[in-house]
C-alpha cells in the first residue's frame, strides 16, 4: 500500500470536482482542496480506519468549502447571473393564460437503478454545473452541503425571499436540463 | 366559486411544489396543494418529477459522499 500522503494526494482530482461544482470559482476551489489535503496530512491520526479515506476527505472538504463560502459572502450570491435576473423559468413552461398546463408534464417514471447509474450522475453534474453561478452555489449548498435554508441565509447574509427565488429558478432549470438530457432521451437499456 | 379560499391554478401549484423542496409551506398552502392535487391530472405528474429529482439528488449525495463506485 502506498504511503499515506500519496494516498491522500491521489484523491485531489476527485475533491476538486466537487469543490468546483460547489464554489464555481477555480481559485476558491483550488484553495479549498489544498487546505483539505494539508489538514488531512497534518492529522493522519484522526483518520479512523472504519471509514474510507475518500469519505473522510470529502468530510474535511465540506468544512473548507463552507469556510470559503462564508469568506466570500456577498460574492457568492451575486454576479454572473445578470441575464437571469428577470426570468422565472416557470414562464417558459407550457402554461395557458388561465394558469392551467397547456401540455401535461411528462411521466418520468422513477427507475431506481437508472438514477444511480454513472451516466445519470454525469448528466446530473453537468446540468448542475450549467446553472448560473450563484444559483448553482445556493443549490449545491442545499443539496450537497445539506444546509437548511435558514443556515444558508445566515451564512451568506441573504434574505430568505432572495434565497427562495434563486432556488426556485435553479430547481426549474435543473428539471428542464434533466428532462432534455435524460428523461426525454431514448437510451439503450 | 372564485372566492373559494383554496383555489389555486396549476401554475401557482407548480410554484408551491418547487418551494416545498426548500421551505415548509404555511398550513393554508398545504391544504390548497392537497385539494388541487386531488382534482388535477397534470400537477401530480409535475409533483412526481420533483420527487424523482429529490430521489436523484439523494442518490447523487450517496455517490458523492460515500465515494462509492469510486474512480
Please characterize this protein's 3D structure.
The complex is a heterodimer of chains A (189) and B (71). Chain A folds into two domains: 4-71, Rna Polymerase Sigma Factor, Chain: A (Orthogonal Bundle); 75-183, Orthogonal Bundle (Arc Repressor Mutant, subunit A), CATH 1.10.10. In chain A, helix 7 (118-129) crosses helix 10. Chain A has helices at residues 4-9, 12-23, 26-42, 53-71, 73-77, 112-115, 118-129, 133-143, 149-156, 160-183. With 189 residues, chain A is an all-alpha fold. The longest helix of chain A is centred in the C-terminal third of the chain and has 24 residues, at 160-183. Chain B has one domain. The mean pLDDT of chain B is 88. The interface between A and B is large, with 44 and 37 residues.
Notable traits:
heterodimer; A: 189 residues; mainly alpha; Rna Polymerase Sigma Factor, Chain: A; Arc Repressor Mutant, subunit A; 10 helices; 0% strand; B: 71 residues; 66% helix
Topology:
The complex is a heterodimer of chains A (189) and B (71).
Chain A: H1 4-9, H2 12-23, H3 26-42, H4 53-71, H5 73-77, H6 112-115, H7 118-129, H8 133-143, H9 149-156, H10 160-183
Chain B: H1 10-19, H2 27-39, H3 42-65
Describe, in short, the structure shown.
The complex is a heterodimer of chains A (189) and B (71). With 189 residues, chain A is an all-alpha fold. Chain A folds into two domains: 4-71, Orthogonal Bundle (Rna Polymerase Sigma Factor, Chain: A); 75-183, Winged helix-like DNA-binding domain superfamily/Winged helix DNA-binding domain (Arc Repressor Mutant, subunit A).
